[in-house]
Amino acid sequence: MTTEPDYPQIITPFAWGDVTNLPESAWLGHLPFARWLVEVIRPQTIVELGTHRGASFLAFCQAVCEMGLTSAVHAVDTWEGDAHAGFYDDDIYQSVLERMTDRLASVGHLHRKTFDEARSGFGDKSVDILHIDGLHTYEAVRHDFELWEATVKDGGVVLFHDTAELKEDFGVWKLWDELKSERPSFEFLHSHGLGVMGIGSEFPGSLKKLFSADAKEKEAIRKQFEISGQRFQLIQANQMQQRQIELLNMEIADLKASKSWTITKPLRKIDSLLKRIGA
User: By CB neighbour count within 10 A (0-12 exposed, 13-18 middle, 19+ buried), where does 157 fall?
Assistant: First the structure.
């Protein structure tokens, strides 16, 4: 006889689904939660402040496409870098564009602007999911939150990445500590931490369970998503290794087809023979 677990079974088969063609990112461990959130909220509009290589943005786009939603997913970034992510050239922006397949491009929109410049393009109460992941100083993340909070609908959520990062001048944790008791909230501790804050008071059933979980339930929910995140990270690492092997095989094939490889073939035979006879 089986018994029902005494904690919320929140994670869903859709959240466990594989996400493909993503870059390496500190966000990979939270991708199952991103999928779960899209499934639960069924958003019309997602806005991401700070996209960098695009892992979370592309995962949101893929989830929207898989569910057959008509959502718009917006990425706002200058793609110039900052003091925490480092400064970089146009290659990063181009790499995001290259991963935008025709299918993803139907829902994903890139805005190469500062967060302040982009704000006027989004009306109040127009965003279902707001993901804040720009410069992580306390002053910067507070500014971003205060500027964009009004865009989030009642029943929507704000995500804060890196709530568990205490190094150097990272200050997301400090703002999170100030806000989490004022509104419905939940925090994941793995993959550098992710704060989930609800706006308003009415939420879809599963999201309501997340926000109302007691200490034991929170621990169980965190474990569900941490394990699923670790699984995804291992899958991604394996896929990256396979791609690296394919690239090396292509380089070897090119090398063998080259003129220099043909010319040096007799020398390689002599070297191989000398090694066999121990010379």
Answer: buried
CA distance 81 to 135: 9
Name the nearest CA neighbour of 45 among 30, 60, 55, 33.
Answer: 60
219-268 pLDDT, tens digit per residue, is 999 999 999 888 887 877 777 677 777 777 777 777 777 766 566 666 66
Contact indicator for 86, 136 with CB cutoff of 8 Å: no
Helix (H/G/I), strand (E/B), else coil: 193: coil
Q: Which helix (H) or strand (E) holds 198?
A: strand 194-198
Q: Which of 133, 126, 125 is nearest to 57 (CA)?
A: 133
Alpha helices in the chain (DSSP H): 13-16, 31-41, 55-67, 91-99, 102-105, 115-118, 138-148, 172-179, 205-212, 215-257, 259-263, 265-277
Q: Kindly report whether the global pTM for this prediction surpasses the value 0.90.
A: no
Q: How far apart are CA 172 and CA 159, in angstroms?
A: 11
CA distance 16 to 29: 12
SS3 100: coil
Q: Report CA-CA distances (Å) from 166 to 125, 129, 136, 137, 152.
A: 32, 25, 11, 11, 27
In terms of Cβ atoms closer than 10 Å to its own Cβ (0-12, 13-18, 19+), residue 152 is buried
* Other CB atoms within 10 Å distance of the CB of residue 195: 24
